[in-house]
Amino acid sequence: MELTGQHLGMTLSISALDHDNAAYFGYCAKGELRLQRCRPCGLLRAPPGPACPWCAASDFEWVSLSGRGKVYSYTEVRHAVQSAFRPYLPYVALLVELDEQRAQPSEHEALRLIGNLALADGTLASPDVVRQVGIGSRVRVVFARVGEGLAIPLWTLDESASQPDSVWRYPELSTPP
After folding, report:
1. Can you tell me the mean pLDDT for 68-88?
2. CA–CA distances in Å: residue 137 to residues 12, 117, 155
3. Which of 24, 37, 126, 148 has the highest CB neighbour count under 10 A?
4. How far apart are CA 162 and CA 22, in angstroms?
């Protein structure tokens, strides 16, 4: 069965033939961040897929994760290509390194997921919150329910974690005259 939903006025769909992504987003709809763990080599993988990118084995299990990590990188969007995002400008897309499997299988190939910065209720973060986040910020996953059996993972500041004294942010751009 195809999964469909709406997010900020945009239609999202996952084909019934895409079993790996249907399972991933189905777990998200239950409020769980789960990823595939390869049984032979034990490494987690994202995005989900039919075979392990490290050892090519197809034997895996879905495992629950903490949903916590730190911002590894980010991009700040100041011009919304999609009109539904205009009220949220500027918004950020975060690349989050999860606490699980940090620096494995190498320091350059750790477990990282992409998602927008949001508030705890799953709405995109305001500019005031955007200005608080940078590389090194501690975040946790939240889910925005977008349809029956379908939710997308987003990131919010982790209020239970110690935040770094300062985070690296891109220098503020001045507006041209």
Report:
1. 93
2. 29, 11, 11
3. 24
4. 34
